Amino acid sequence: MHLTALAIAKTGSTEGPKIREGFYAIDKYEGLIKSYQKPFTPTNQDALAASDYLFTYFKGDEILPLTN
User: Fold this and answer.
1) Most buried residue, 27, 29, 45, 58, by most Cβ within 10 Å?
2) What is the per-residue pLDDT across 16-51, written as a single tens digit (0 to 9) for each?
3) Which residues have CB under 8 Å from 54's CB, separation 6+?
4) Exposed/middle/buried for 64, CB within 10 Å: 0-12, 13-18, 19+?
5) How many CB atoms lie under 10 A from the CB of residue 34?
6) What is the pLDDT of residue 68?
7) CA distance linking residue 33 with residue 20, whole number of Å
8) pTM for this one?
9) Contact, 47 vs 53, CB < 8 A?
10) What is the phi/psi pair of residue 18, to 5°?
């Protein structure tokens, strides 16, 4: 949501095409779960990559990573 607010602030518009251009204009953002470097481009529409996800499970009172 913060990235969307930043994109709107960059363009001063809530029109879809303008927001898209605002996303492309974001160079760097220090987010809660990661630091984003150029999170969106015309060829990359997702700020998160597969390596950003970690699946976990509960075993008793522990949270453990799910491994292959």
Assistant:
1) 29
2) 999 999 999 999 999 988 999 999 999 999 999 888
3) 65
4) exposed
5) 13
6) 64
7) 22
8) 0.74
9) no
10) -70, -40
